[in-house]
Amino acid sequence: MLVPQSLLALLLIASVEGCIYRRDEHGVAVSTFSYTGTTGPLGWAHLSSSNGLCSNGTNQSPIAISSSSTPTLSGSALPVVTIPEVSAGEALLENLGSTLEVVVNGTLKLDGVDEEYKMAQFHFHTPSEHRIDEEYFPLEMHMVFKSASGGVAVIGVPFDLSDSGNSTSLLTTVFAPIASVASPGSEAPISGALNFDDVLSAVQKGPLYSYSGSLTTPPCTQGVKWMVLGKPLDIDVKTYKTVKGVLKFNSRYTQNAPGEVNLVQYAGDGSLHRVVFRFRCFAPCIA
Ligand SMILES: [Zn+2]
């Protein structure tokens, strides 16, 4: 039987996308990118024509933060963040394949910026995406805020393993239903109330590093106002191991310093290597 060309094309697209797209009966959209192989960070720009900044943007995230040179916010420059307590059972923990995410309401006001940012969601990466003085952490939470004009601000909160078995109460509550969201595309109600008080008071104490970067996932949009907490909060070993078993690995490699050449472009463009080499060796080369 002859198959019409348009149908054949659709079948081909479906079979290709079937490798990286999954959607369950609840409708949680699973990400089309991954952290491994050609759909991983080095290949993100090839997944869509809108992902070009992932391989050629020069203000990409995450970065290696330096306590001696990355600016910090203090006093009136600190963001004013309000996240009302979410009642038990109101929020959902969703497994997007690329992360575990929770949608909640909240607001963020930045010093010197007129418009208010609305909280869109918060999600997790393991290991941490940002490094602080070259040190990474087991887990990093990203609280994502968006303004009406399209601005994005993200607060990054690192978590470290607790020596005494303590865990930040927000994490204990958020991850309680994790066994029910082991598969990408699944979701489960969070049965406890979500309270951000401990996290927000730590953000106010700082240090809170600040820089202009990008989304750490495709399409790697730049102009993102990053604020990264310098002191990690606690997570207990048992909770972390459970989270790691579901999240697996979802951390983009450390990007070049803001304003410097994109590392994908640097690695792939031989002529760029030669230009940099000639520039660096100019004096000894002509000697
Ligand atoms: Zn993130």
Automatic annotation (TrEMBL):
Its EC number(s): 4.2.1.1
Pfam families found in the cross-reference section: Carb_anhydrase
Keywords: Lyase, Metal-binding, Signal, Zinc
Gene3D superfamilies, per the entry: Alpha carbonic anhydrase (3.10.200.10)
Transmembrane segment boundaries: none
Cofactor: Zn(2+)
Domain Alpha-carbonic anhydrase residue range list: 31-276
Keyword Transferase part of the UniProt annotation: no
Segment forming the signal sequence: 1-18
Catalysis: reaction(s): hydrogencarbonate + H(+) = CO2 + H2O
GO molecular function: carbonate dehydratase activity; zinc ion binding
Recorded family membership: Belongs to the alpha-carbonic anhydrase family.
Role this protein plays: Reversible hydration of carbon dioxide.
UniProt protein name: Carbonic anhydrase
